[in-house]
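User: quick one, fold this
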Amino acid sequence: MGATLAQITALLFSAAILLMGNGLQSTLLPLRAQIQTFSTVDIGILGSAYYSGFAAGCFFAPYLVRRVGHIRCFAAMVAIASTAPLAHSLFPLPGLWWVVRAISGFCLAALFMIIESWLHEKASNENRGVVFSTYTIINLTVMTLGQLMINLYPPGSYALFALASMLVSLAAVPLALTKASAPAPIQTVKIRLFYLFSLSPIGAVGALLVGAQQGAFWSMAPVFAERIGLNTFFITLFMSLTVLGGALGQWPLGRLSDRLDRRHVLIGAAALAAAIGIAIRFNTPTIGHGILIFAVLYGITSFPLYSICAAHMNDHVKDGGFVEASSGLLLLFAGGAVAGPLIVAPLMWYFNPYALFSFTAAAQTLLVLFALYRLRARASVPEDMRSRFVDALRDSATVTAFTPEDGQGEEIQAEVSHEEDEPPVSPAEEEPESTPASAEGTNESAGEPEKS
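Assistant:
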């Protein structure tokens, strides 16, 4: 393990600095947009533009990596991404901000893809879980620090944008100076969304609904916090405590889902998240800064939902299909994250800022109702046939390159055991009451570069 850490230290430092700069931007931009008198709908489109660019980066970044190599591509994406905060500061125009934010999303997808493919190659099957757990902890910690940096200067000043640009630029230094050898070309995989839906309807629908809820939250929560009267310090606390709550909730809920039917855990967590959203919706005027407690509880219950959906999907995937499954879930999540801000922003404009949590509660309630319906349609997976939650957590934190279902050309195709002409029918779907879902395959997914 020591030798592995020595090879990935530079990667982890680059990821930490990059995520710190990105965490600063994610909260700063909605706040600055309000100072510039952008409309609520303008801010919603801004959030949607980021996720659109991120999804595009998953499609097209591998071509850039294969053309110029990992380090050169990383340096190029950092150079472009570091100009984004400066452009936001110098040109406060909604249309331009949308374009710049989409470009930023593209660059971040490419940068995460490079870092995480490198981590996958340097890690072994024995220590891969430890490596990606360390990476996840770093992600959550530095994102929180980045958000808290907003308190260093007024949001209306140029200084915070300059600081974000500096952080993103500095992310190139550790990786550019590393002696570690570059990894093999990034794998891509074809996606068959209807096939994935047939394997695990809850996994597919859950990824879409969770994406809509989280896309709406990340894009509009700073606007919500500002509109209910929180100052900059408490806005950053609200966002940071939600992230920390998400970190606290991952392991207990994940381990519980390893022991029980994951659908029961998913239903319970989503129902609690919806209840907390409703409590925020109706009680915020009377609880004041007690909203911070609700922020922690909301993070604990809502942030692990995607990883549970990914674990449930892995329970039904055949050997060799984990890359396709995790990539498909990422695409569904991104689609939901694009739609979420576009739906909730007009609601917040027409009604009030509390519409944000009315929307998230509605999405989580839909997930609960769909999961309850699926409980009657399919038997649970026996405990000894379930994938480990730690693998799903790793997958849900990893960006995988993907191509459309009919994508051909120069892509390096990941090994997928399903043939293109294989009918997308699950044995457990045909005989829900008598045939256990575990008949669909084993679930040891260690070692593959997968993806939330």
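User: anything notable?
Assistant: The first strand starts at residue 188 and ends at 190.
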